[in-house]
């Protein structure tokens, strides 16, 4: 992301780079048996450039061609979108610990679904279906005004039906 910011600064008055990556694990149980298991990851990078009071934007899921992303954002300046104002200045943000480790992956989720299936099956008549998952997101924002902020968070879910 630093390299992208450096390239974009040569073509704009102000630059913001936004990057996000996410991993996820999910398992599904139908009538007490494992039916689905899925793990995946995705990421993307957005670039906003400001030049002569106008704003251009470009996005990619594959940051191999940084120069191409900058060209696309600069080309978007032709749309004439007015820039909203100055970029924020760096400030000290509190660090929040909202991320959990990925130890165990789908095996931990499957064990939890089995535990919930046993509990619910002993209290309800009929079929018990469950789904459980976890995702971890990492977000980073860099600006030409010196902001370098990042955060990492984890979300969990469990559904029964």
How is the topology of this model organized?
Layout: H1 2-9, E1 14-30, E2 33-51, E3 54-60, H2 66-75, H3 105-121, E4 129-143, E5 148-160
Antiparallel strand pairs: 1-2, 1-4, 2-3, 4-5
Structure description:
A hairpin with a 2-residue loop joins strand 1 (14-30) and strand 2. Helix content is 22%, strand content 44%. Strands 3-2-1-4-5 form a five-stranded antiparallel β-sheet. It has helices spanning 2-9, 66-75, 105-121, and strands at 14-30, 33-51, 54-60, 129-143, 148-160. The protein contains three helices and five strands. The chain is elongated. The longest helix is centred in the last third of the chain and has 17 residues, at 105-121. The mean pLDDT is 89. With 161 residues, it is of the alpha+beta class.
How would you describe this structure in keywords?
elongated, 3 helices, single chain, alpha+beta
Q: Biggest β-sheet: count, sense, barrel?
A: 5 strands, antiparallel
Could you tell me the number of beta strands? 5
What's the overall geometry? elongated
Which oligomeric form is depicted? single chain
Helix count equals 3
Distance between the termini: 43 Å
Poorly predicted segments: none
What structural category do the secondary elements indicate?
alpha+beta
| Beta-strand content | 35-45%
Give the C-alpha Rg: 22 Å
What is the ordering of alpha helices and beta strands? HEEEHHEE
Mean pLDDT: 89
Trace the largest sheet across and list its strands.
Answer: 3-2-1-4-5
Helix content: 10-25%
